[in-house]
Amino acid sequence: MKNFKILFYILMFLPLPITLIALVFLPDQIPAHYGFDNQVTRWGSKYEMLLFPIITIIFGLFMLGISKFSSNQEKTGTNNEKICIIAGILSIIIFDAMTGYFLYTAFHKVENLSSVPVDINQIVFIILGIFMIVTGNLMPKLRMNSVMGLRTHWSMKNEVTWKKSQRFGGISFMIDGILIILVCCFTKDFNCFLWSMGIVLLSIPIDIFYTYKVAKQN
Hints:
mainly alpha; 2 domains; 218 residues; 68% helix; globular; 7 helices; two-stranded antiparallel ribbon
């Protein structure tokens, strides 16, 4: 657990010093927003790049709070806290990747994201896919809590419904993660975003219905 927390803190704070150093070399005006067509829609100050590290730190602190809260709801062991920290690490990697990507586009004053060799949607959703696979593998180990896992009114009916729901949700997460990674291999730009989000949104009602079904049977 200690090593996971150390890695968590490193990844949470890493973008801040990197961005502060990068500000010395960035042009005063950088691309601040891109449209769906990958074209710049607004230029802004290079200091706007500090938003990414600040958001990352705020999110990291939020995940630490979640891990602490879920740990307090666990009668024995530290499974919930460990899983929250791992989920936080994978989530923060997405923020770090986005920071690095947009530092690159800012430094090169990229006006069209299509000219960048690597697509930001592919980066984000491949990491998300890995996140879902890892999280799905960990979900059956979660003990009942009110902040993490496949949580519905029905899944939290009792220990049996909770365990069955997390097992099903874990499998669902892993399948979704694999499908999202495959989508990222064959699509890019907005199509990658649409297909990936479609997979996630399609699985939500299926997971919720399963918790309802399990609760009726138990």
